[in-house]
Fold this sequence. Notes:
Shape: elongated
Amino acid sequence: MLRYCLALLIATLAYAVPADYGCADRAVRVAYHPFGMAYWRDAEGRPQGIDPDLVAALSQATGCRFQVSELSRVLIWKMYEQGETDMVLSALPTEQRDRFGQFMPLPYWGNGNELVVLKSLGRPTSLADLDELPEFRLGIVRAYKYGDAIWEQLLIRQRERGELIEVADIESLYHQMKIGRINALISSPMLYRLMLPRYALDGKVHTLDWTPERNELRAGLYFSRSRFGAAELSRWEALLAGPMQQQFTAILRRYLGPRPN
């Protein structure tokens, strides 16, 4: 009987031991990058957004502590390659990044670009409609890549006409719309759901999705191989591919609304 009780106690303790995610001895280093609904600070300077909520959910699921900072996207990737960042959020996979870590997908949505126009322009449905609007003034972020062919066509047409207004950053772009210098811009739900209310433009624009058939971006997290071993990476992968899928979908819905069909 005593032997049976000891065996039962050992089995119970073994079951209670949490999975090793490679964070028992020190915190997981991760950095936020300001990007629309993914991460921003509120009026009191508190972190808000999809990425902080995801980190909180991962901490609860694994028991890991996270050491967080706020850095530029360029610096985040530089530190990742140098082994100074353990996890990168809201990441897109590339061969270069695969050299230093393992990519693990999550069901991101809200990154596809749409045309945001002031309601004074009506609801154009094509580039041809825009040709009929002599007052059409488009603004973009200088050197930003808008991806889909239709947006590249639009930029070429506006440049040829000398009617493309280029600014340095996202904040400047929405400011230009607020003061009326432009009446259209190209942006994603991840950005405009934060920026429109911030610049008192909510309810004053139409958001037009002209690329509904586009494939969703394959996005997720990168885990540094200089920090995590193969067994630990397997545990992270199982967590993200299983229980975290539904939880992350709920986080996205909280900020971006229902998932597009």
